[in-house]
Amino acid sequence: MKYASLRYGLSALRCLIALCMGGLVLSALPVQARAAAGGSAGSAHAADMAARMQPAEQQAVLQARPIGGGEGATQAAADGLLAWPGVARLGLPALRMPDFSSPARPADEGGHPMLPWLALAATWDPDLARRAGGARARAEWEQGRAVVRVGGIDLLPSGRLQAGEDQVLAGTMAGMIGAGLLSGHVLPVFGSVAGDEQARADGAVPGRTAPVPAAWLADGSLLGVAMALEVAHGGALLCGGLAVCQTVTGLGAMVHDAWHFPGMVMATPGGLGPARPDDASLLPGALGTGVDMEQVSSREGGHDMFGAPLRQAVRDGAVRPAQLQAMGMHVLASFYMAGSLDHPPAFTPAHAAASPPVADTLVSDVEAEGAVLLQNENRVLPFDPALGPVLVLVRAPMRHAADLLADELRHAGLGVSVVVAADGANAPGTLPPATAQAARTLVLSGTDADNRMISTLADLGGHVVVVLTGDDPDRQMPWLDMVDSVVQAWAWRDAHARPLAALLSGQQEFSGHLPVTLTGGFYPPGMVDADYRAFERAHVAPLFPFGYGLSARGHLTLSDLHVVREGTHLNASFSVTNPDGTAVRAIPQLYVSPSSDQAAPRRLAAWRSIMVAPGHTLRLTLPVSLRLLAQWNAPAANWAVAAGDYAFSLGFSSVMLVRHADVRLPAMHLPAALDMAAD
After folding, report:
1. Residue 429: CATH number of its domain
2. Which stretches are annotated as coiled coil (predicted)?
3. Which of 384, 339, 329, 372 is nearest to 43 (CA)?
């Protein structure tokens, strides 16, 4: 089984990849084989093609612009599609892509899931992430699009993105989505936009206006980006999302010089600044950001940095031809890594009917593995048919979902009825009469507006199960001590009904773990970030911690943790025992605390998704990247591991840590270059 990391030198990232990818071994081989060619050979091909371009062609490939006239162009423009022009003289085809300044389409549009979403991150399952990327690749290919944005990670820090709040987890999942996209010759562009970010309940956001050196972000947000590129074995980066491209200074040097990444950095429309066609004064700053390709939207009125201002600068001799050639080489390298130039999708006319999506259980599988059991007092779950019927209580907006779930629960052998509460149901007399007689009530709740209804219901004295059908990490739960069971089921999709019924009825075991901290809307004073490291620094326990998740039927025990150094990586070994009579799937998580002279909190180092048979003990060994113990050494452009003792902790969440081990390390330096070749 494998997972994710970032390889600095020969072992760092490869070791964490070997850890994080669960059961994904054979399924990744075609991607790795193709990516190897797209990495080294593709870079050489990109350099050759860039050198053969004429000056006007070198400038043209630095932009993706609104689609011009022709069949389907009007609809494409309405859909926010842009076209990269290619170079017909050299046989390089034009390619289409979305305008990345806007959030991704709704999850169920066209029958294809949006990527990523928190339910997928909650599975901690890279194989599912790769399947999701493959499904998205097929959908994009069908529509003639060769480039897709993968959110969940970004250049600037944010603990509120859809792939989760930890860079190791988010980088792995985003990278495996990218691997699935690359397998379908679709280029993944890694980066988020503001619309992807989950707003905090108190409205606070991290400061993102002052310039910050890339070196300061190397072991934080940029770690997730670098991991995604290496896990995917290709792709491109996006800036201009959570902040304009000038905010992260030295990005080009980090990406191309330190990481040795051959591909491109893209900018969203307007991300390089509000240039005017007759004003090239801002162009030097735009070129200094490290951006290689600029998206131009029709909303910008045709004003852009790499258009008229760049053409004027080239005519004046202010921009060297070698710089344009290097930027074009980066653009081509990303497309060659994806195979998009050799296998371009056909442009789809606007009137062409999309073919029905291939039958796939992806969305159901994500819910089945990603739903998180947060609480289960009195072992109310799974529902026992012998204990009588279950009442499903919802407000009107959730009636359709309740009917679907009730049908699936009936198929599982339960007696189920559905009642709808009127608006303002916050006292015993205003709840439907059936709730007073119900011994077991299941509430589907999407927002905090249901809280008074849930509290009123709990006061009636029956067993209450609350299923949360939203993605809000700040969901308030004032009724938590009054109800029996709580399930985090994420944003509702109709395909969730069957797997959720299987979990509630015991036909399938809960195995999801939180990819974000559930705060309950409470933050200690002065806290800007809301991830698990921020809570640890503040010495405050959150409502439910990162990595948390229960089993309804059994539990595993962890023992005998040992950590040893082997060359340029660490091996952590431990035993997992299932003392119960039911097979249990769980996710043991390994966290590391840097040495005392480093001002850094505990962080996720590795994990393993494991199924343990009843009465069995397994001995596991997880490789750990030394990069996760290092600090960025800016003068040498490498990673420095300080000599000292490092503490490792093992458990089932970021705070439920039951086994500990220390390892003493000498001072070491690790190269920063990404490993873009196959394992």
Report:
1. 3.40.50.360
2. none
3. 329
In a domain, 6, yes or no: no
Total of domains in the chain: 3
| Structural domain contains residue 22 | no
pLDDT, tens digit, 9 for 90 and up, residues 567-621: 878 999 999 999 988 898 889 999 998 766 666 778 999 999 889 999 999 999 9
pLDDT at position 30: 31
- Clarify whether residues 311 and 427 are in a common domain: no
Closest alpha carbon to 531 in 488, 483, 580, 474: 474
According to the model, what pLDDT value does residue 438 have?
93
In a shared domain, residues 323 and 410: no
Q: Are residues 191 and 98 in the same domain?
A: yes
Record the tokens describing residue 166, joined without a space.
């930890």
What CATH number is associated with residue 568?
2.60.40.10
Residues 426 and 562 in one domain: no
Both tokens of 456, joined, read 């009123």
Domain boundary pick from 482, 509, 536:
509
Q: Which residue has the higher pLDDT, 284 or 391?
A: 391
d(CA 412, CA 506): 9
In which domain, by residue range, is 621 found? 557-670
The rounded distance, in Å, linking the Cα atoms of 362 and 674 is 31
493 and 585 both lie in a single domain: no
Q: The CATH number of the domain where 50 resides is what?
A: 3.20.20.300
Whether the CB-CB separation of 271 and 245 falls below 8 Å is answered with yes
Distances (CA, A) of 154 to 115, 134, 197, 224, 436: 14, 22, 10, 8, 49
Domain end point (choices 479, 509, 539): 509
Q: What is the pLDDT of residue 278?
A: 62
The sign of the dihedral angle between the CA atoms of 503, 506, 509, 514 is positive
376 and 322 in a single domain? The answer is no
Residues 92-135: pLDDT tens digits? 999 999 999 876 654 334 444 455 579 999 999 999 999 999 99
What is residue 569's predicted lDDT score, i.e. its pLDDT? 85
Query: Is residue 5 one of the residues assigned to a domain?
Result: no
Q: Please give the angle made by the CA atoms of 141, 297 and 292, to the nearest 5 degrees.
A: 75
CA torsion through residues 112, 116, 117, 120, sign: positive
Residue scoring higher pLDDT (9 or 518)? 518
What DSSP element (H or E) covers 569? strand 569-577
Contact 486/375 with Cβ under 8 angstroms? yes
Note whether 263 and 325 are same-domain residues. yes
The yes-or-no verdict on residue 526 having pLDDT over 70 is yes
User: For residue 75, what pLDDT is reported?
Assistant: 55
Cα dihedral sign, 477-482-487-489 = negative
Give 333-387 as a DSSP string.
HHHHHHTTTTSPPPPPPTTPPPPPPPP--HHHHHHHHH-EEEEEGGG-PSPPGGG
Q: Are 170 and 115 in contact (CB under 8 A)?
A: no
Are 505 and 574 part of one and the same domain? no
- Paired tokens of 15: 């070791």
> In this predicted structure, what is the pLDDT of residue 596?
67
Two structure tokens written together for 515: 């990819």
Answer for the pair 582, 553: CB distance below 8 angstroms, yes or no: yes
